[in-house]
Amino acid sequence: xxxxVPLTANTIDQGYADQVNRHVTxxxxxxxxxxxxxxxxxxxxxxxxxxxxxxxxxxSTSWHVQTWMEGFRGDAPDVRVVLMQERIRIAKQVSLxxxxxxxxxxxxxxxxxx
Length: 114
Hints:
2 domains, mainly alpha
């Protein structure tokens, strides 16, 4: 008979870590395959921009988490604080892009007079 391992914080954390590792490995393989599809250029520009933004968020988050885990910065702040700061930066960037898009769309669309 196999030994029953009691559920503890450590086993739950390890199970979650294993699940995240499998998920990251699967997504990495999918991204590599997607790269080959993107080379064909058969993708809507807006979809591609949204995809690139999402990839940039994931890259930034993974870099911050890796930095935090390695203690690269010495007294590294709590990873949640770093991620919140990054999300604020991204929100600002998206707001500026949206503002620019709105200005461009109103300039290119004639306004009907009544």
